[in-house]
User: Fold this.
Amino acid sequence: MISNELDIDVCVCTFRRSHIVETIRSIGRLAIRPNWVIRVIVADNDETPSARDIVEATARECSLSLTYVHAPARNISVARNACLDAATARYIAFIDDDEVADPDWMAALMATLESRDADVVLGPVQAVYRPDCPDWMRKGDFHSTRPVWVNGEIITGYTCNVLFRRLAPALSGRRFRVELGGSGGEDHEFFTSAWRAGGTIAYAATALITEPVADNRSNLRWLLRRRFRFGETHGLLLMEDQASGLGGRLTYIAAAGAKAGGCFLTACLNCVRSDRSRYWVLRGTLHVGVIRQLLRREQHVVVVPA
Assistant:
């Protein structure tokens, strides 16, 4: 007898963050079809299994099936890979431990995955700003996450709101690169590589997740460092995709330099509008990160604390 159950593993990586309770509770409130089977996989990245008790208690409270994995390393790639190693479902979703899923989150992701016959589907992450956050930050909405289209196609992704087919050819056996797990960009590399391998990526605009902006992230310095790391990862991917030697590298550097210069000039021209000026500064900083990575003798990303 063939079962009509549709199983989904929802993965959450955590490191000393009490908000994971709210994240798990939001998963427990998901509106799901009768034949869906949801399991939560939590990978605790702390040196000691500090989240075990609270995670297990919350899962029991929400009547959720739970697999707790201790993945000590303080390296997010190690935690993400532990989730993938523990996953057995046909579909895998990722959500961060400081986020809250809308009740229709999974339904919206699955509907898009099936209707578009995609391998990966991304949803939006909407930042929730405190009233005391700077006005330019709230206007610019710089902490929210949505995909970027290139020539009408999504060619990379992120793990803060995603659902994908575990056994799709472009994803089966794929893992996050550990050397990127301390600096960031491991999810960008993961999904870019899957796309290059023929994977298709779609977007579900109504698959909403919200994320409160933490105190230590509500400043320009944090945003600049984040964009710089994005640029470093993009520079790494450029070099690995194009084995074009020194000439190709210089071409990329020149292009990134021109883009950075244009962004910073535009920032100056918009100096009377603080949100637009900072938008262009952040965009220019990303291109500076590309240049920094392309100038390295060895292709790697330097660890920068989050």
